[in-house]
Protein 1
Amino acid sequence: MADVRFHAIRKTFGKVTAVDDVDLEVADGDFVVLLGPSGCGKTTLLRCLAGLEKVDGGRVLIGGRDATNLPPRRRRIAMVFQSYAVFPHLKLFDNIAFGLRMQKEPKTVIRERVDFAAKLLHIEDLLDRYPSQISGGQRQRVAVARAIATKADVLLMDEPLSNLDALLRMEMRAELKALLRQLGTTTIYVTHDQVEALSMGDRIAVMNAGRIVQLDSPLAVYDYPADTFVGGFVGTPPMNFLAADISRNGAVPLVNLSGGSFPLDDPEVGRLAGRRLVLGIRAEAIVVEPAAGEGLIEATVIVVEPLGSHNLLTVKTGDDLLKVSTPPHLFPEPDSLIWLRLEPGRIRWMDSESGRAIPLADPAAAPVPG
């Protein structure tokens, strides 16, 4: 067993609380991504698990053992750092073998495991070179191979791809995901890059101000954010947020925005009348119509950004600026009028005071965590 459990973990630096009463369970073989902006506590939480930071409260359990006060060498973890941390004076073979030699493994075991890890990372032909003789991407592979070779119970990764260029980062992302699935090692991966988080993890723990604000599958985090922070942080572009209130047009609820109103035939929405609301919707869930019609919102095009696979429009409706994703053939002129249809099934409702999502009793909708 190599499950990981954080129970009420707290870590402070002087008057700053970096990790604030965090609970998290990572099952054996699970791949969990800690996602959040700089300073949210994700790397500190990882270092608390590794034993590189002493917690101020709570417990860390690894494989059912209380590891809270164990030194790093006894926690059976391996860590890949953002800076790679390869030794420049050692050949690649010796870099990968370093942890095994610290564990005093026999030479035959060291050779076997180094060869195994090097082949997995496609660097078996480079083992006689020094780090200065290989590229940044290859040095990253060495760091991952060194961690894999130790056959640790838990693999920790702290923004391991952030120093690579965009194309190499995309290639390594796919390779690393396939590799970790093949190994089945319990993995906790820290990143501020939402694309990495959405594309790689089995689950994402979104952190803000030292707390986990949502823990869910990547699709649930994207489609059903727990609050306006998650919706605004996850997604490119982030979720659109509009001040809204609900009134009634006979039996049908009417959604009133600063740029206009439209009916929404959903009795659950009608029950939100009288609350201060925020309407959240993704750019790709807004359909552009060329002419006015029932249920459409008028908008003025501000900017058009052609992105190849689609165009990204910035439009203004009433007091609100929105991002709208359109097919590449739809290319309206700046300052022109367009009309927007908000897909009813993709609208998310948030409380304007707390920012928390308001789950509706819709059997087709996934539940909102938290």
Protein 2
Amino acid sequence: MTREVRIGNRWVGDGHPTYIVAEIGINHSGDLETARRLIDAAVHAGVDAVKLQKRTPELCVPPDQQTQMRDTPWGYITYLEYRHHVEFGREAYAAIDVHCREKEVDWFVSVWDEPSVDFMEAFDPPCYKIPSASLTDESLLRRLRQTGRPLILSTGMSTMEQIERAVALLDRSRLLLTHATSSYPCEPEELNLRAIETLRRKFEVPVGYSGHEVGLIPSAVAVALGACLVERHITLDRALWGSDQAASVEPGGFERLVKYIRVTELALGDGVKRVYDSEVPSLRKLRRVNG
């Protein structure tokens, strides 16, 4: 069966080019100009979309962590204060919307709570991402289904039973899953790329890959194993402060990643064994007996 979902002007799924997403996340550290530079780098690399994250900190930070102190670029502050520093408001997102439209690139967000869905609806996003951390938030899943928009559900740190319950609450005709392992960075032995096919068989929806590894090769391998979407974090410099920076890809690396994915797509072919015209000279020169 054909598995495909329409995101913006693109079909994503079986038989379509891999939809490549540069995850800016919170690597902008609350600075709009940094966000613009990351968008520009992603567009230059040839991605299909950029993604950010939207939270309501008071709802998303567990109560026992809100008063925990943390060393940050803004000083020694509580974790809740830190989350506010890296959260964009309406004015910043309006500027991001304008910038992405000028660059002709899709943009959307991971939403972590219901007020964030209501906030983002004003920007008419082509889809929403449901982060792995929110896979068991049934109220959020129901609110997102109500939007009628395509949904990308990330499956990190989740059991198959938890994924089944989440999928049952959503509209499969507008659903795409992403396989992920939620460690930053993730060691190769825990990437478990064969789970892409497991999810494809089990749920019969398009399945992508959200990678948090160091390096680029596993993301191209994920495409060879059936991933129709690849999402990787992008950063201007992996040495910058922030929890996601070490598992991110710098601009030059993102250019190579896009190239590797496109070469992988070409190299996969259609599976029909044939003699190519380019092989004929070798055939005539090297084969002694024709059968």
Protein 3
Amino acid sequence: MNQALQILQDRGFIRQCTNLEGLSRAMDERPLAFYIGCDPTGSSLHIGHMVPFFALRHLRAAGHTGIALVGGGTARIGDPSGKTEMRKVLSYDEIDHNAQAIEAQLDRFIGFDGKTAFTANNKDWLAGLNYIDFLRDIGSHFSVNRMLTFESYKKRLETGLTFVEFNYQLLQSYDFLELYRRHNCRLQIGGDDQWGNIVAGMELIRRIEGAEVFGLTFPLVTTADGKKMGKTEKGALFLDPTVVSPYEFFQYWRNVVDADVLRFLLMFTFLPEEECQNLVRENAGAEGAPPSINEAKERLAYEVTALIHGRDEAEKARAAARAMFGGGADRQAVPAKPVSAAELAKGIAAIELFAMTDLCASKAEARRLIAQGGALVNDRKIESLETLVDSSWLREGELLLKAGKKRFFRLVAE
């Protein structure tokens, strides 16, 4: 197998390939251009979107050219894959704003140089399409019967599939054709939920251009306990630091279950495979002793946070985490917001305080946390739902709220 593909295989990336032997030969012969698409349906990617972009960096390091296609055109319709209902319709201005934000996030992670990695936006060729010509030239190559066999459509037929969404596969296939014509792009990669769309694009190029191209998909990552990767108490693990702070991001990885550490080290860092194996092996505890894998978890958290938010933020998050659990004094990276000193002097209900933070999504969730004995303020346990927190609880001008054993938030009196 081609060396780059072997790296992806060994690190757990490969799920399906349209022709693995053929792709391996093609990559051995000469560098390939390949692409990943993502629709700007929000202003930030989350960690679940990033698996193909980690693969992009591995493939680029092996000499291949990566294209990050931002779907400014396809986002106007919305991909039905993996969805039980139609996506929210966004204005064109919202889509353009989201596209710019996502391109900036990807640039920080990938480092576009215009040669070995660059971006494209399918709005450039989709927005001005003549619908009649498109149906005649492209739609004629698609069988409705075949399209309905793909899982993404079969699932949606149970809840209702709009005609607008039904067109999505044609547009994504056309993207592959356009990138083949413009950049000799011969490989599309993506999550396994994109298999049907990728195969359709590959077949469209074969029919129109008579060329062989390839599709490669990666697993939709779940945790060892069966949960969707990157899901937190607040929702998705977004890359935007104003939505999920670098400290919260760090803590997510620091708290993954032991069984996921090696798999995540291999997939979400660029540490050599042998080093990943050794990190887990050396920190798994001596024979007969209870496992202690915390050092490997901290390394995982540091490496992923550094890749997404930069080394400085990763250092701050690690220092803050050590301070929380080791009695240190550096808490500055812990998420914080101001609280009125005047209101605090009067006393604020503990339920209100926790609901003000990212620790609880609502007052009802704050009540449950307190009732279960998991709420602390500056190391003082909140014993009652009626507890009032006032200025006497302050320590160095702030309240350090704790939910459970590992989640913290600071309220700074102002």
Protein 4
Amino acid sequence: MMHANSCNMVCAAETSASPSVLPASAESSSNFSSEYTDCTKKILLAGIALERFSLNYRLEAAKQPKFRQIRYFLCQEAGAAGGLVFEATGADQFGKGRRSPLKLDKGALRAALATTMTTSIVAAGSSGLELTSNIVRAYKNEKNGYDSHSATKFVSAHLKLIDDLLLKRETLVAQNDNGHGYSRAVAEGQMLHSLRSSFVNEYAIFNADTRSYMLYQNMFYFLNASYNTVGAIAADVAYRAVSRPHLNGTANILFITSGALAMVTPILTTTAEKYMRGHSYASIEKQLHATKFDPAEFEIKCKEMASLDHSTDGTMMPSFPVTDRMAIYTASNTLFEKQLESETKVIHKFEKVALQTSVLGPVIGATLMTQGILGTNGYYKYPLRPRRQIAQFYYGSVVGTVGTGAATVANAVSLLQTLSYEHKLTKENLMPRQLIQKRLQHLAEIEKTVTAL
């Protein structure tokens, strides 16, 4: 596999290194320079392999199936529109029925209920399809080494290699504490330690973001499939209740259940996502023995190292300019992560269907639950007073029309916003995948420079 090959290459290179020699003459100075450069080169190459893996991990683990966005929005829009058809028909028919029950058109009610039952099944099926797709994707990622466990194992192995090389380098530098460029070598060592912290920090962020979003997504798909399934069953029972009124109580209780599930789904998924992000980040830091990486402090170290007098260091220690370049790459990482996080956050915000949002989701769910409560109240409170009972059904349908209408409009707006924003980002080469690809290209250029040492 790609990861194992990278690790083996660096490990093999390390084994071929010569033992440390104290430079006491021109010949020993040459040996020191060679060993020092070789050791630093291996550290940088291991770091580059780690950085490349982190970027590819983010790219692969967060990849979404082709056409998911369109097909899922269309299916969820069908579910919302089907619900709106029933609510509007119910408001019309129950509005007539509350004045004269004989004017109620049972055929129209059955047709509307059949429509919402069908579209609820479509919406539930679409969530089931996407959940299954994520499970298959997770299996493929595991085979390719891009699941969280395999990825952390790979990163841990490379960090151990880097730590061993850093220790070897420190020993070599300590043996030359009176030699030319000692202060510069110490500064470079501090920089390499900071780079190590940066690699861990970036992987921890990517891992936490990926795991938390996948949990959020899978949890929503499961709950969405659940309440749409309950909604479809409720519509089926209500369909039969048109001819057998004794089923109205059961139908409305099912509507309450479906609405309640829809109402709490955004709250549950958002809470689970936040918990998973914090938990994953802390877990990775603990497993990889991470030290705090402070971007501001890192920039100060970069300036301090640049300010040292190293006019002749390039002949004896040619790794210095390369470390500088790697440091500049890492310093730009803060901006890269902020930009990546910003664009990803906006895309995730726009791509949510109405019932996923923390603002609209609970409100829409509450309207559907209220409809069920009004219907249940009417059925059990006024069993022998059909006008009063139908009046409660009418009020419920009016409330339900508001909720399903909001969902239908919000879904359409969300889809248009997402397509427009992604089109704009694609033209400007600012889509998350494009940002990562540019980062990988930059890394490949640095790798060529390091390899040439």
